[in-house]
Amino acid sequence: EEGHTLGMHSYSHKFREIYQSTEAFVEDMNRLRDYLYEVTGVDSKIVRFPGGSSNTICEKDVMQNLIAYLAQEDIPYYDWNVSSGDAASGYVSAEQIAKNVLDHVWQFDSVIVLMHDVANKDTTVEALPMIIEEILEAENTVLLPITEDTTPIQHVQAD
Length: 159
What we know:
Blueprint: H1 15-18, H2 22-40, H3 60-72, E1 82-83, H4 94-102, E2 113-114, H5 122-137
Parallel strand pairs: 1-2
Helix pairs in contact: 4-5
Protein backbone atom coordinates (compact mmCIF):
# COMPACT_ATOMS: atom_id res chain seq x y z
CA GLU A 1 0.00 0.00 0.00
CA GLU A 2 2.97 2.33 0.56
CA GLY A 3 4.63 1.37 -2.72
CA HIS A 4 7.26 -1.02 -1.38
CA THR A 5 8.37 -4.11 -3.25
CA LEU A 6 8.03 -7.57 -1.76
CA GLY A 7 10.73 -9.81 -3.12
CA MET A 8 11.66 -13.40 -2.48
CA HIS A 9 14.96 -14.42 -0.93
CA SER A 10 14.65 -17.86 0.65
CA TYR A 11 12.30 -19.78 2.90
CA SER A 12 14.99 -21.74 4.71
CA HIS A 13 18.15 -19.73 3.96
CA LYS A 14 20.07 -23.02 4.12
CA PHE A 15 22.57 -22.42 1.32
CA ARG A 16 23.95 -25.95 1.17
CA GLU A 17 20.44 -27.38 0.79
CA ILE A 18 18.84 -24.93 -1.62
CA TYR A 19 21.86 -24.80 -3.93
CA GLN A 20 22.18 -28.59 -4.27
CA SER A 21 19.98 -28.60 -7.36
CA THR A 22 17.48 -26.62 -9.36
CA GLU A 23 14.72 -28.73 -7.84
CA ALA A 24 15.82 -27.92 -4.27
CA PHE A 25 15.96 -24.20 -5.04
CA VAL A 26 12.55 -24.23 -6.76
CA GLU A 27 10.99 -26.12 -3.84
CA ASP A 28 12.34 -23.57 -1.34
CA MET A 29 11.30 -20.62 -3.52
CA ASN A 30 7.80 -21.97 -4.12
CA ARG A 31 7.34 -22.59 -0.41
CA LEU A 32 8.28 -18.96 0.24
CA ARG A 33 6.15 -17.65 -2.61
CA ASP A 34 3.11 -19.53 -1.32
CA TYR A 35 3.74 -18.29 2.23
CA LEU A 36 4.12 -14.67 1.15
CA TYR A 37 0.92 -14.88 -0.87
CA GLU A 38 -0.94 -16.44 2.07
CA VAL A 39 0.25 -13.70 4.45
CA THR A 40 0.15 -10.64 2.16
CA GLY A 41 -1.95 -11.47 -0.88
CA VAL A 42 1.04 -10.48 -3.05
CA ASP A 43 2.35 -12.89 -5.67
CA SER A 44 6.00 -11.91 -5.64
CA LYS A 45 7.89 -12.19 -8.91
CA ILE A 46 11.27 -10.84 -7.83
CA VAL A 47 14.21 -12.81 -6.37
CA ARG A 48 17.50 -12.09 -4.65
CA PHE A 49 19.57 -15.23 -4.40
CA PRO A 50 20.83 -15.96 -0.88
CA GLY A 51 24.44 -14.84 -1.02
CA GLY A 52 23.76 -13.24 -4.40
CA SER A 53 24.12 -14.85 -7.80
CA SER A 54 27.88 -14.83 -7.25
CA ASN A 55 27.81 -16.69 -3.93
CA THR A 56 30.58 -19.16 -3.22
CA ILE A 57 28.32 -22.08 -2.25
CA CYS A 58 26.40 -22.68 -5.47
CA GLU A 59 28.30 -24.39 -8.27
CA LYS A 60 28.46 -22.43 -11.52
CA ASP A 61 26.41 -24.92 -13.56
CA VAL A 62 23.68 -25.05 -10.88
CA MET A 63 23.52 -21.23 -10.77
CA GLN A 64 23.21 -21.14 -14.56
CA ASN A 65 20.32 -23.61 -14.31
CA LEU A 66 18.66 -21.44 -11.64
CA ILE A 67 19.06 -18.33 -13.78
CA ALA A 68 17.58 -20.20 -16.77
CA TYR A 69 14.68 -21.43 -14.64
CA LEU A 70 13.88 -17.92 -13.39
CA ALA A 71 14.05 -16.55 -16.95
CA GLN A 72 11.65 -19.28 -18.09
CA GLU A 73 9.27 -18.29 -15.27
CA ASP A 74 9.69 -14.56 -16.11
CA ILE A 75 11.07 -13.88 -12.63
CA PRO A 76 13.94 -11.37 -12.58
CA TYR A 77 16.71 -11.67 -10.02
CA TYR A 78 18.56 -8.78 -8.47
CA ASP A 79 21.94 -8.46 -6.87
CA TRP A 80 23.43 -5.26 -5.43
CA ASN A 81 26.12 -2.78 -6.32
CA VAL A 82 26.51 -1.23 -2.85
CA SER A 83 26.85 -3.25 0.35
CA SER A 84 26.04 -1.88 3.79
CA GLY A 85 28.51 -4.30 5.35
CA ASP A 86 25.91 -5.42 7.87
CA ALA A 87 26.39 -9.09 6.95
CA ALA A 88 29.71 -9.13 8.81
CA SER A 89 29.79 -11.75 11.53
CA GLY A 90 30.56 -9.26 14.31
CA TYR A 91 29.00 -6.03 15.51
CA VAL A 92 28.82 -3.25 12.92
CA SER A 93 27.73 0.14 14.21
CA ALA A 94 24.94 2.15 12.61
CA GLU A 95 27.48 4.85 11.80
CA GLN A 96 29.72 2.36 9.98
CA ILE A 97 26.78 0.93 8.03
CA ALA A 98 25.73 4.44 6.98
CA LYS A 99 29.34 5.25 6.00
CA ASN A 100 29.64 2.03 3.98
CA VAL A 101 26.55 2.98 1.98
CA LEU A 102 27.11 6.71 1.66
CA ASP A 103 30.75 6.32 0.62
CA HIS A 104 29.66 4.32 -2.44
CA VAL A 105 26.09 5.19 -3.36
CA TRP A 106 27.19 8.23 -5.39
CA GLN A 107 29.35 6.14 -7.74
CA PHE A 108 26.39 4.82 -9.74
CA ASP A 109 23.40 6.21 -11.63
CA SER A 110 21.20 3.46 -10.21
CA VAL A 111 21.89 1.72 -6.91
CA ILE A 112 20.65 -1.35 -5.13
CA VAL A 113 21.96 -1.53 -1.56
CA LEU A 114 22.43 -4.84 0.24
CA MET A 115 21.02 -4.63 3.77
CA HIS A 116 19.61 -7.21 6.15
CA ASP A 117 16.53 -6.98 8.36
CA VAL A 118 17.02 -9.89 10.72
CA ALA A 119 16.61 -9.79 14.49
CA ASN A 120 20.32 -9.55 15.29
CA LYS A 121 20.94 -6.62 12.91
CA ASP A 122 19.47 -3.76 14.98
CA THR A 123 22.11 -1.30 13.81
CA THR A 124 20.92 -1.66 10.21
CA VAL A 125 17.56 -0.19 11.19
CA GLU A 126 19.33 2.54 13.17
CA ALA A 127 21.43 3.42 10.10
CA LEU A 128 18.48 3.81 7.75
CA PRO A 129 17.42 7.35 8.77
CA MET A 130 21.01 8.58 8.34
CA ILE A 131 21.23 7.00 4.90
CA ILE A 132 17.79 8.05 3.70
CA GLU A 133 18.12 11.64 4.91
CA GLU A 134 21.48 12.18 3.20
CA ILE A 135 20.29 10.64 -0.05
CA LEU A 136 17.11 12.71 -0.10
CA GLU A 137 19.04 15.92 0.67
CA ALA A 138 21.20 15.43 -2.43
CA GLU A 139 20.14 16.98 -5.72
CA ASN A 140 18.61 14.80 -8.43
CA THR A 141 18.16 11.74 -6.22
CA VAL A 142 15.09 9.69 -5.51
CA LEU A 143 14.36 6.46 -3.66
CA LEU A 144 12.30 4.04 -5.70
CA PRO A 145 10.93 0.53 -5.21
CA ILE A 146 12.08 -2.25 -7.49
CA THR A 147 9.49 -2.83 -10.20
CA GLU A 148 9.35 -4.74 -13.47
CA ASP A 149 10.82 -1.60 -15.08
CA THR A 150 13.92 -1.62 -12.85
CA THR A 151 17.08 -2.65 -14.68
CA PRO A 152 18.48 -5.55 -12.66
CA ILE A 153 21.95 -5.45 -11.21
CA GLN A 154 23.26 -8.98 -11.68
CA HIS A 155 26.66 -10.32 -10.66
CA VAL A 156 26.30 -13.45 -12.81
CA GLN A 157 24.73 -13.41 -16.26
CA ALA A 158 23.18 -16.31 -18.12
CA ASP A 159 25.65 -18.17 -20.35
